[in-house]
Amino acid sequence: MKQMDLMGWLFLFLGLPLILLLTLPLISMTTEPSAAMLKETIADKDVVAAIARSISLSLCAAGLAFIMGTPLAYLLARKELPGKRLLEGIIDLPIMIPHPVVGIAILSLAGRNHPIGHFLSDVGIQIMGTKTGIICVLLFVGLPFYINTVKSGFDSVPVRLENASRTLGAGALTTFIRITFPLTWRHMILGIIMCTARAISEFGAVVIVAYHPMTAPVMIYERFTAFGLKYSQPIAVWLIFISFVLFVMLRMLSKSIHPYNR
Amino acid sequence: MKQMDLMGWLFLFLGLPLILLLTLPLISMTTEPSAAMLKETIADKDVVAAIARSISLSLCAAGLAFIMGTPLAYLLARKELPGKRLLEGIIDLPIMIPHPVVGIAILSLAGRNHPIGHFLSDVGIQIMGTKTGIICVLLFVGLPFYINTVKSGFDSVPVRLENASRTLGAGALTTFIRITFPLTWRHMILGIIMCTARAISEFGAVVIVAYHPMTAPVMIYERFTAFGLKYSQPIAVWLIFISFVLFVMLRMLSKSIHPYNR
Amino acid sequence: MISLHHINLHLPDFSLTDIHLQVHRHDFFALIGPTGSGKSLLLEGIMGIMPFTSGILLSDGRDITRFPVEKRNLALVYQDFALFPHLNVFKNTLYGTTFHNISKKEAGQRFTYLVSALGLEKIVHRYPHNLSGGEKQRVALARSLILNPQVLLLDEPLSALDPVFHDEARQLLKKVHKELRMTIIMVSHNFDEVLYLANRGAIIKGGRIMHQGDILSIFEKPDSRFTANFVGMKNIMPYHLNGSSLQITGTRLEIIPHCPPDPAHQYMGIRPENILFHIPGNPVCKNHFTGKIKDIASCGVFLRVQLETQGVMFEAVWPAAHIKQFRLETGKTAAFGFPSVAVHTF
Amino acid sequence: MISLHHINLHLPDFSLTDIHLQVHRHDFFALIGPTGSGKSLLLEGIMGIMPFTSGILLSDGRDITRFPVEKRNLALVYQDFALFPHLNVFKNTLYGTTFHNISKKEAGQRFTYLVSALGLEKIVHRYPHNLSGGEKQRVALARSLILNPQVLLLDEPLSALDPVFHDEARQLLKKVHKELRMTIIMVSHNFDEVLYLANRGAIIKGGRIMHQGDILSIFEKPDSRFTANFVGMKNIMPYHLNGSSLQITGTRLEIIPHCPPDPAHQYMGIRPENILFHIPGNPVCKNHFTGKIKDIASCGVFLRVQLETQGVMFEAVWPAAHIKQFRLETGKTAAFGFPSVAVHTF
Description:
Largest interface: A-B, 90 and 90 residues
Oligomer: heterotetramer
Strand order of the largest sheet of chain C: 6-7-8-3-9-10
Order of helices and strands of chain A: HHHHHHHHHHHH
Number of strands of chain A: 0
Distance between the termini of chain C: 31 Å
Shape of chain C: elongated
Largest sheet of chain C: 6 strands, mixed
Number of helices of chain A: 12
CATH superfamily of chain A: MetI-like
Structural class of chain C: alpha+beta
Helix content of chain C: 10-25%
Structural class of chain A: mainly alpha
CATH architecture of chain A: Orthogonal Bundle
CATH class of chain A: Mainly Alpha
């Protein structure tokens, strides 16, 4: 790390418009609604329900990412797999796919004339317009964030530590549980935060799969089109505020007492 | 890297549902439209215009990210800055903010009753319903992808190389141009790809700022709500296909002959 | 104890080829070679971390070639010690005991013994990031030794330590070997270290064993130019036989060997410390010359002297005392010689 | 040539404190100290990469304390050589010439000279990733030397090289110093290396200069326990004066020094190679003892012998030949001694 020099200040000046682009809109949005309007908005049962739904469904998706994505991330970090490059590409796909297309793709699968859709509907699983559908969409868009974060966590644990555990008599699974997991669970919390944040922010894919039950972003869009900017701002502010509190809490949890530095 | 063992196969089995979730919908979406429908769609001038608009505006945003974001990424990678942590947080913000909220925030700034909006409209810059507005939105959502990719590129160049260049008589800016840039331009190409991809996929923020001029994701959404799944699929397939070709071309460019390994 | 027969290990960019090794009980066996020679890979192969492609690995006569790592009852101490950062010294040391048939009581006894034997009393509750290099090494040893492994494998045990701690660490390893009567296989690229610690060893180069046997015999009778160079032999020159003496190729200088060389040999070498300064009045060596001093360079208490005679350069290491006493300096002439037993051919 | 006056450099977790140094023209000056002593930081300070907090840095009498790095006309060769990976050897070597007033012709001449002097002919078109450690070092030297810097700064020049190349690299540095008549400041933690290369030096510890002067005088007359340890002195023991002899504290053993010690001194030390095996028939040293051999350990051609007499342990380094000839082994007694000039106090 070096002190700022002349070039440093020049570079900062060049980047300044971007910093303003990122900060000014958010500042102006959060400062425009009056306290009364914010209070009135949070008293609206529909708003509270939509925000609660957004957060709970996003956490569900992150939970599924944790359960099924952790082993996948471990495989990608550690093992030789045929077609591993392809698998990594597949996991990064959701970042590259336009959001409405994600929704359309998931609906394509769920149609009654599609064999899988047929099967799903036979066992009573509905995608269109249901919480199940929303969770599918949120998992789809959030997964790369979870897996990439956790994979980099596994990458940061030297393989030598796992080998050392093996040489001391522990099996592969025991080694994962007693050595790898304790050294990476903080990355998993971070991955859950990233995945949840991405899921809460999703709109384009959700609105295709389920306009109702309404998530917070859909409600913000609806209020905007129906009543204009002024009536959508307070919900946006509340959604951001509540998500922010949630993430800070999760972060605190992961920074709780631990006796070693890494 | 290790061979697959029993645990490896167990972990793969656990992660299988996720791989299916990511691949099956895309496969079914891309295989459902008939060749005739795909041909008919690409003959539609509106569709071609929307896809061209999406790609060109996204590349514009990525170009701005390159010009203004590169110096910022260098600062973050190399220099001591007061409030650097805060700045890093600000740059990651767009990932965490719900997409319609991004649109609403940018419109909050552009309103005629806001001093900045007033100033912008005085100098003839319109945000609402214009290409300028769309570029702002796309830059907002794409920027973190560009900056984080390029920052990790700068991180991978040892500071010692820059110091060595200085000891040999080159100034700070010359060193950046002759040493740092040649060693990181591949990261910049990758950053541009990431930023463009994120911008092309944006829908929620764009639809708030500008329903018209229509970008491809907005058109897909419009066709879906107006005519149903079947009529939105072909545009989705074309958008993905064309973006894919674009990214492959950019990648090839960055992998063109270079005489050293890194 | 440990024996390897026809061992091969193929990786995309490196191979171990047809390795045979015999490590006896209570050996301190050194695998010696330059960086990239495959010596650490061989260690990982014996441990089971990198499975051998073919060949047989016997431990006490039992074929363990296909045993998983954790069933081999061998212990490997990594170069960087690989302590678990989230466990303190106490938990690191006891980690392996839960996976073996060791009773709580037995584990406790062994722990108490090792803590005092390795001097860990004061650091039992510390975490690895608060330990010095030497302390880490002792914890890593304790963690392995508590399991009573049949063989202890050490990967470059000194190279991660600050040079200041080398002496101490060497003595510790010697103590572990002697007092616990361990069988040890050590990887090293430093021949001094090996001379101090090991009794037997093998020279490895490019994934092949070049030479194997007693350390002293490797040191004194290297059998190839590579080994000769590696163990610090100098004055390596090609020769051809001229009657019973060795004539240095391209010159007229003749050297008298102790006994007729193997006809297959082509090179001779002499350790620089065996080239003696001829102190006036002392009896003369069989090979004696008068040469011009071309360079004198300090390397600690000793000086490295380059001597030229009849177009051949000899390198000798002489005590600084001689240089002072006899006022030797560059450009002067000096009489020197070496006994015929000091002449090695290969 | 280069002089530092009252130099301080404060970092959040380390400081250089009140450094004074004098490097003369054509010196090969060594900054010597253990890891973390601040010696590399001092080098970066002189180069201007880490600006000094206070103090004055003079180069040829000119105050360059506030000059930017690129205007100092010094050259720094990093430990890992820091070659530019995207430029071949040719372009790496010529990189600096465009930023100095060097004509194309002049640059070409210097390049041709350096290529032949440093033996780069065969690698001119290669890229750094295809070079061996020794080749990288030579390119890094050429890249700096082509600019005719006033002083060449070397950061641990041998530590990144395979030990096999150490000899070669040492000779190269010696050659650069002699033939190009360079002034060199080298950072090192290895005293043997310093003895071979440098003529003057300073011992640095915890960001402070402990001792400064001729390398031989530092080697022979260390002035603190730290320096003594660092230059390989052993047998360091506290004493108190008893008449004209030194009585080792806690024992009755008395040692006769060459001249009365400084009253402020508290410790004595003797190099292990100065403790001589008493060969029967030879004249006896002023200090002579009979002791029990407690341990004999090989360290190359020499053996490290621990001798106990009157409760004091002495460490001596004796040639293997003595051990063989006189059949010395652990448990036997041996007569030994050391001249009074070998006794140093500090």
